[in-house]
Amino acid sequence: MNPPTEYAESVLDLVERIPPGRVMSYGMIAEYLRERTGRGSPRTVGTVMARYGSGVPWHRVVSGAGRLPPGHEQTARQRLEAEGVPFRGQHVLMADPVLWWPE
DNA sequence: GGGGTGACCCAGT
DNA sequence: TACTGGGCCACCC
Question: Pairing with A89, which of A12, A39, A64, A65 sits 20 to 30 Å away (CA)?
Fold first, then answer.
């Protein structure tokens, strides 16, 4: 596996800061990094997580609709429920108290 | 430098 | 509620 690029590093740094029991969407991450770096998009964040996400709390990153990463639904749901994240059916309940934004 | 590839998003149907 | 099409953009040939 190739080393993370500069943009990938900024994504990983942010994901590492998400507290237990809270989540961010790919779109939120893209918006935050675009404010700070002027780069990125939700799709690019997804690509970064697919390639480099294994070393960070990737289960705290979900789609804007609360869907879990393809191929890792069971693991993600197990970890999130253990942290107290509420579910509605198969997806995370994307309500204010669970969404996190960096201070 | 040009084209393909996504762990996305949103509006429309 | 579920699916589609268009837009998106860093990264890798």
Answer: A12
Query: Tokens 């890792």 belong to which residue?
Result: A72
- Alpha-carbon span A50 to A45, nearest angstrom: 9
Q: Is the CB of A57 under 7 A from strand B?
A: no
**The token pair that represents A89 in the structure block:** 């059916």
Q: Please name the nucleotide lying closest to A47, CA to C1'.
A: B6
Q: What is the pLDDT of residues A48-91, one digit of tens each?
A: 999 999 999 999 999 999 999 999 999 999 999 999 999 998 89
Alpha-carbon torsion angle A67, A5, A11, A74, nearest 10: 30
A44 touches strand B (CB under 7 A): yes
